[in-house]
User: Fold these one by one.
Assistant:
Number 1:
Amino acid sequence: MVRPEVAASLAGRDCSGTTALVTGATGGVGREVALALGRLGADVSVHGRDRDSGEAVASDLRALGADSQFFSADFRDLAQVRGLAERVAGRVDGLDVLVNNAGAHFDDGELADSGVERTFHVNHLAPFLLTTELLDVIPDDGRVVTVASAVHRRASLDLDAVTSVDDYDGFDAYGRSKLANVLFAREFPRRVDGPTAVACHPGFVPSSGLWRNAPLRVRAVMRALSVVPRRLTFGVVDSPGSAAATPTYLAAGPAPEDGAYYEDCAVAEPSAAGRDDDLAARLWEWSADRVDA
Ligand SMILES: NC(=O)c1ccc[n+]([C@@H]2O[C@H](COP(=O)([O-])OP(=O)(O)OC[C@H]3O[C@@H](n4cnc5c(N)ncnc54)[C@H](OP(=O)(O)O)[C@@H]3O)[C@@H](O)[C@H]2O)c1
């Protein structure tokens, strides 16, 4: 299995003294990012919902010598997101790195308690709230890395549409939420002094848990792709470890470009919608209003 820190050319980098929180680190890409940061010497808090898996990752991190604790919070509930921020802020002196990795795809449309469509709520609104609640403990040289997706390129964002599940399409909703991740990082430097924010595409990981709510035929394709060796897919299919390279690079590597979107450990141009500064500003205002409502 490819080690993310090796794929990101960071092996040997010393992150001791760095404190990180990786959301959605109970499995998939987030688990590999958390372990990579731990191997580089960082102290890493682990977030997710599955307590057994989260405790196991925290235990693996402690075995590496890291200070680590598992924090449970369901991102469908903004009160739990606020509680997570409080608990993390109460435990660390400063949070050098926040990796907003938790994410989900839902095949069926549902409104969350916020009145926002569930995919947008979990994938955008929750990390928006978590990040803004943690800003007091993220130092000026800290980093906020949000795991978006290249599928943002297929998406458009109509803020009126995210409070409705009429004509819901799971893949459209997912792409729209990932576009919001890109726009969040883009707007961040205009709203926040100090920490650097970036978004990234990790890779295509058919073996991750992301597809658990997808239609049966999609799950069958993903299962089949999961067993094909990466070299036979011309590098298109990633393992969770190879997909963790770019978020690990952004969390622990050379200072990234503030507001930028990355693929394969390098700056990449997002879609036209992902470069829409008016939309990014409106999304920020809209999100701030929503989490205060
Ligand atoms: N897989 C891909 O091909 C791909 C491609 C591009 C981008 N991405 C992005 O990469 C990130 C990681 O995805 P992955 O592929 O590693 O998927 P994954 O294996 O399903 O991992 C998702 C993580 O998010 C957590 N999570 C999901 N729903 C949550 C909720 N309601 N509240 C709190 N935590 C929640 C899960 O925790 P629990 O299981 O403990 O609930 C899990 O730790 C996501 O942001 C995804 O959009 C993935």
Number 2:
Amino acid sequence: MSDVQLREWQDDDLPTIGRLHAVSRQHAYADLVDPVALARVSPASQETVWRARWAELREGAAQGRPYVALLAEAGGLSVGFAVAFALGRPDDGSGAELNALHVLPSHHGAGVAQALMSGVVAALGTWDVPTAHLLVLEGNARAAAFYRRTGWVLRGAAGTHDVGGAPVPVLRYELGLR
Ligand SMILES: CC(C)(COP(=O)(O)OP(=O)(O)OC[C@H]1O[C@@H](n2cnc3c(N)ncnc32)[C@H](O)[C@@H]1OP(=O)(O)O)[C@@H](O)C(=O)NCCC(=O)NCCS
């Protein structure tokens, strides 16, 4: 897809982010998360989540911890987003976290994720951190393949992540930045 455009989030993007996150999770996690828990993931629940995180990101930035929060648009539609931030203190050698990268199922395999990843990595490269990390649900084979292709290396099991109130096992990947 040639017409992917990235831009930084604005305050009024949060309903869009919530919707993208809910649609993406419902699709990608259908076989990985208990259906009752997954049913709790809605555009409204995810807008609430991101409203709080957006406030935290900006507060962190005011204290010297940079972040990048990107919205991808294609054909006049919002089709994906990504968020990464520098950590206040290193996490097992990592100085930054790629916290979320989601693309609408209709736009998988179209280069949107690659554009978002390139935008995130460009930002990471300006933060003077040696390594970044991310967590991905165990069994999320498509995401794992995408991360491997974009240079991330599997480091192993990393506990659980809450999805709709259910703890789901996650794997940690790292990306060297120097
Ligand atoms: C993860 C995500 C951003 C990747 O974007 P994408 O457009 O699907 O990525 P691409 O199509 O460029 O790459 C996906 C890779 O997975 C491969 N793949 C597709 N389905 C697969 C499957 N079931 N098992 C294993 N690999 C699979 C593709 O062949 C491709 O690999 P290749 O380029 O080496 O051939 C996107 O799939 C997404 O938003 N998923 C839902 C949200 C998510 O899981 N985000 C990560 C949370 S940490």
